[in-house]
Amino acid sequence: DSSLKQSTTKNVFTHRWATAHRLSSKINFIHTEQPNCLSGLMGSLQTPKTFALYQNYPNPFNPETHLRFDIQSSTHATLKVFDMLGREVTTLIDDRKAPGEYIVKWNPRNGTSSTYFYRLEVSDLYGRKQFVTKKMTYIK
After folding, report:
1. Are residues 42 and 102 in contact, defined by beta-carbon separation less than 8 angstroms?
2. DSSP state of 9
3. Is 0.90 surpassed by the pTM of this model?
4. More reliable by pLDDT, 17 or 58
5. pLDDT number for residue 90
6. DSSP 8-state class, residue 72
7. Closest Cα partner for 89 from 118, 65, 61?
8. How do the residues of the chain divide into helix, strand and coil, expressed in percent and rounded to 5?
């Protein structure tokens, strides 16, 4: 029973990323202020029902990875990367975002092989902040 559940979970995860990568050819990536980062809005027909941050793909990665997140309403969003000691490595996104599904490509270029954390923070209409943090591994 647990192996069936794990297999089903893995298949759903694989399907989501396969879909994202099929769509990635249709994403209009734009350069951000960060030299090692591209950001794009996926062409989904439905507005996400919730705010979400997904596991990066591929993980572990070299030379780049894709960070995917959903935003359900127009809000200020911040996506940052931190090292193992909690020091900020880079800010990938720091601006107002419309509702939608987003993918950010990140390439640490001169980074060292390590585990990093990435955090998405958004504010709701009342100024309350929500955030989610995930872990990723860069292998040089």
Report:
1. yes
2. H
3. no
4. 58
5. 93
6. S
7. 118
8. 15, 45, 40
